[in-house]
Amino acid sequence: MKFSIHAGHNSFVPGARGYISEEFVNRKIKVATIRYLRAAGQTVYDDTDDYGRTQNENLAAIVHKVNKHRDLDLAVSIHLNAGGGTGIEVYQYDEKTNGVAGRILNNICEVTGLTNRGLKKNQSFYVLRNTKPSALLIECGFVDTKTDAMLVASKTEVIGHAIAEGMLGKNIQTRNAASRTSTHEFDQSLPAEVKGTKRSVVKLVSSYPGYLIKRGSRGEEVKRIQRALSVTADGIFGVKTEAAVRNYQKRHQLTVDGVVGPKTWAQLFAA
Ligand SMILES: [Zn+2]
């Protein structure tokens, strides 16, 4: 598929200010989103504008760039909110984009734990009104609410991943997923002579991969979790794995949601 993504605002016409600067964090989220989409083989244009000197120039430049591409499936505008509040909201021009907008919204709420403020219809936002392809405007939390701001600024990578997965409607396995597998997996999959050379990577592998592992997830991380829980390690996070995770969470006084996030991961793989 073909996508256009841009980060809102620029240094001449900065966005909202609070505990963090909107245009700066917008760009970090934008970069992560594009990277994950490209890793999944998608065509993505970065239509961020760094030169517009007024808000109108900035918006017009963005729309001009978006409309130069042919056959785009979707344009996505990344912003942060302000005005005192908390949570995530996604704006769309009309209900046609309910599916993809809802997925993005739910995904971001899930990885940040922030409130779902809902899907909003808006036919006056310049970008939503003027781009040829359908466009969505994502407000990734509030710059002037400390908890939102700190959380979002520290999670630009997982938010980008969540947006990319929402746009595609499927999980994105990163290419370097293999470098996060456990020592055991290295030992089994590498010829004897290279085993030693990979030791240095082993330290990294205990760290949380940076996104939620849950029903529908697949891959080496799922296998690792399954082995830790003594479930058949088929790499597919299904009903049985979920039940085992819930059980484990119950026994360890973790939030019982059947999802492996940073806390459950840390408990499972504590050194
Ligand atoms: Zn903005």
Descriptive overview:
The chain is of the alpha/beta class. Helix content is 44%, strand content 14%. The protein folds into 2 domains: 2-168, Zn-dependent exopeptidases (Aminopeptidase); 186-268, Muramoyl-pentapeptide Carboxypeptidase, domain 1. It has helices at 22-39, 55-68, 98-112, 126-130, 146-154, 156-168, 183-189, 192-195, 202-205, 220-228, 239-251, 262-268, and strands spanning 2-7, 43-46, 74-81, 88-92, 116-121, 135-142. The chain has a 6-stranded mixed sheet with strand order 2-1-3-6-4-5. The structure holds zinc ion. Zinc ion binds next to loops. Residues 66-168 form the MurNAc-LAA domain. InterPro entries: MurNAc-LAA_cat, N-acetylmuramoyl_amidase_3, Peptidoglycan-bd-like, PGBD-like_sf, PGBDSf. This is N-acetylmuramoyl-L-alanine amidase.
